[in-house]
Amino acid sequence: MNKSLLAIGAAMLCVMMGSCSLFQKNVRTEAQLPSDRHSVEAGSTRKPYRSQKLEQGEIGGDWLIEKVFGQVAKGQDTPYLKFEPSTHMVYGSNGCNTVNATYKNNAADSTLSFDNMITTMRLCAEEGLSETAINEALDMTARYTWALNSGRYTLQFYNAAGEPIMTLARQDFDFLNGTWGVAEIDGQKIDNDEMQLVLDIDEMKIHGNTGCNVLNGSIVTDMAVQGSISFQNMATTRMMCPDINQETALLVALEAAAQVRPVDKNTVELLNAHGDVVLRLVREN
């Protein structure tokens, strides 16, 4: 284990013993979340990281930690890592405490390493996988591989001996970018060319027309839940509409949406929390 992790262990021990050193102060001051971590939604001014960049050798964006040393990674909080290629910084959570580190990766030989690791020292209830295991796995990481399956990217970290030590996953919502016509609401076919939704995944915004009024809102996802999506802060203009019931049905369906499911490259379905299809959208461009 490198010196940074040994220092973390000593600092955590000092919290329990009540005799913390200067290291504790530095950790509390320096270890921080990225500015857009509060929720994966609109508001980030950073250039979006597209998952396809992984195929070009660039690791970036938010990744859910799924397994560590073969065990499901669960903690008091959702374990994740956020890579920022422009600064080669990684932020995240080990299931309890915030983790900061620098990272280097080389696509040519698939090497990956973490250094300068620091964490906060919040005492958390024992729940699921120990946070220590995640710290240890990051310290041991030497190589990586990636895979794409059904629109879902995965990263696999290995130690120097070639043994798999950590699995991470990233959801790719880029397939939603574009203009969509509303084909069905709650199983009822819609024949209204004016009813359109524009989904902007880069900005995590939804725009469109209810068939009468202009619609705006934000898109929110939860990386811990496969296909999770919801629409919030919805607002519309207030023109009197000849078919107000159809407009209301669209707004209710958008508010109920909890998951997105691609049918094919030109069709997607939005499902509610019970798994019922509330909207069927067809790509227009």
Structure description:
The protein is built from four helices and 18 strands. The protein is of the alpha+beta class. It folds into two domains: 3-171, Lipocalin, CATH 2.40.128; 174-283, Beta Barrel (Lipocalin), CATH 2.40.128.270. Strand 17 and strand 18 form a beta hairpin. The longest helix is centred in the first third of the chain and has 15 residues, at 3-17.
CATH class of the largest domain: Mainly Beta
Q: What low-confidence regions span 5 or more consecutive residues with pLDDT below 50?
A: 1-30, 36-46
SSE run: HHEEEEEEHEEEEEEEEEHEEE
Examine the coordinates and then state which fold CATH places here, giving the name of the CATH topology of the largest domain. Lipocalin
First-to-last CA distance: 52 Å
Largest sheet: 9 strands, antiparallel
**What spatial form do the alpha-carbon principal axes imply?**
elongated
Total domains? 2
What class do helices, strands and sheet pairing give? alpha+beta
User: What's the overall average pLDDT, rounded?
Assistant: 83
